[in-house]
Specification:
It is a single chain. The chain is α/β, with parallel strands linked by helices. It folds into two domains: about 210 residues, Rossmann fold (3-Layer(aba) Sandwich); about 100 residues, Rossmann fold (3-Layer(aba) Sandwich), CATH 3.40.50.1100. Helix content is about 45%, strand content about 15%. The strands form two sheets. Strands 1-2-10-7-8-9 form a six-stranded mixed sheet, sandwiched between helices. Helix 5 packs parallel to helix 6, helix 10 packs across helix 12 and helix 13 packs across helix 14.
C-alpha cells in the first residue's frame, strides 16, 4: 500500500520541490568510522524537508477544499513549508504561531504569503486557535507531522537517497513529531535492500526514545534543547510506523549536538540547523556499532537564526 503511495507522491510533488544533493566528506568518514552520505534537505525550497509533505497534503485536497484554504499550527519549519506550498498552488494558508515564535520565522511565513494568527505558547492554545479558524473559514487542518499525506511526502527524501545510493545499510534521521522518521522508515522498508532506519533525539526531549521502549506515546516535562525542531511529541499515525519499521533511537547530549553541527558547517561547508545535527551526533556517539557501514544521514533543514549560533 505505502509503496505505491510513495511512488505516486514523488511524481505528484516533483514539479514543486528540489531534488536535493547528497554530499560526502572523507574527514567525517574518518571521524565516524562509517561511509556517510548526507541528503541535504537544507537545500530544499524554504530550507527544509517539510516542503515535501506540505505540498503533497495540499495537492491531495479537492478543488472545493483548496478554495477554502488550509490551516496549521507551527512555530517553525512547517509554518514556512505550508505557506510556500500554498502560495505555489494559489491556496490561502492560515498559520497559527505561538507569540514567542522567533521573529525571523514569522517574517519568513509572511514572506511566503501565510496569514499569521498568534496564540499563547501552549499546545492547547495552538490547537484551539487552529480549530476555531477551521470552523469559521472551512479551511482544512493539516497537522505538521501526524497527517498521513504529510508523512508520505516526507518519505520521498529517503526514497531519492536510496535511488542515488541503493546499497545503504542504515539511514539516520532526527526525531521530533515523527513525520520525517516515519516516512523515512517506510521508504527504507519498500525501496532499501535490508536498510535499517535509526533516529537521533536529544536527551532533553527524549519522548520518542521512551515511547519506543515503553510501547505507548510519552510526553516531555521539559524540552530544554537547542534542537528547537524536535520539541514536539509523536502522534497516533507516526508512532505505530516508528514501532514497526524503525530499528533504534539514539539519544545525544546538547554538547554532542553542537559539536556535530559545527562539524557539518566546517567540513561540508553548509548551513544546517541544530535539529539536523542530531542525526550525525547519534552516529558519532555509537560509532562502534556502525563502523565500516554505509550510512545515509538526512540533513533535515538549514533554517538558522544567525544571531543565535551556539559557536
Amino acid at each position: 500500500m505505502y509503496r505505491n503511495q510513495l511512488l505516486d507522491c514523488h511524481d505528484r510533488i516533483k514539479p514543486y520541490i528540489h531534488r536535493t544533493p547528497v554530499l560526502t566528506s572523507r574527514l567525517l568518514n574518518e571521524i565516524s568510522g562509517a561511509k556517510l552520505f548526507f541528503k541535504c534537505e537544507n537545500f530544499q525550497r524554504m530550507g527544509a524537508y517539510k516542503m515535501r509533505g506540505a505540498t503533497n497534503a495540499i495537492l491531495l485536497l479537492s478543488e472545493e477544499e483548496r478554495a477554502k484554504g488550509v490551516v496549521t499550527h507551527s512555530s517553525g519549519n512547517f509554518a514556512q513549508a505550508l505557506s510556500l506550498a500554498a502560495q505555489s498552488l494559489d491556496v490561502k494558508a492560515y498559520i497559527v504561531m505561538p507569540s514567542n515564535a522567533p521573529k525571523v520565522k514569522k517574517a519568513a511565513v509572511s514572506q511566503y504569503g501565510g496569514h499569521i494568527v498568534e496564540c499563547d505558547p501552549t499546545i492547547e492554545s495552538r490547537t484551539a486557535a487552529a480549530n476555531k479558524i477551521a470552523l469559521e473559514t472551512g479551511a482544512t487542518f493539516i497537522h505538521p507531522s501526524n497527517d498521513m499525506n504529510v508523512i508520505i511526502g516526507q518519505g520521498t527524501a529517503a526514497m531519492e537517497l536510496l535511488e542515488d545510493y541503493p546499497g545503504l545499510d542504515y539511514i539516520f534521521a532526527p526525531v521530533g513529531g515523527g513525520g520525517l522518521i516515519a516516512g523515512t522508515a517506510l521508504s527504507a522498508h519498500y525501496f532499501g535492500d535490508n536498510c535499517k532506519v535509526v533516529g537521533g533525539e536529544p536527551f532533553e526531549a527524549d519522548d520518542a526514545y521512551r515511547s519506543f521502549h515503553s510501547g505507548k506515546i510519552e510526553s516531555n516535562d521539559t524540552t530544554n534543547t537547542i534542537a528547537d525542531g524536535l520539541k514536539t511529541v509523536l502522534g497516533d499515525n507516526t508512532f505505530p510506523i516508528i514501532r514497526k519499521y524503525v530499528h533504534d533511537i539514539i539519544r545525544v547530549t546538547e554538547d554532542e549536538i553542537i559539536s556535530a553541527m559545527r562539524l557539518i558547517w566546517e567540513r561540508l561547508k553548509i548551513i544546517a540547523e541544530p535539529s539536523s545535527a542530531v542525526a550525525l551526533a547519534a552516529v558519532i556517539r555509537e560509532k562502534d556499532d556502525y563502523r565500516g557501514k554505509s550510512v545515509g544521514i538526512i540533513i533535515s533543514g538549514g533554517n538558522v537564526d544567525l544571531n543565535q549560533l551556539p559557536f
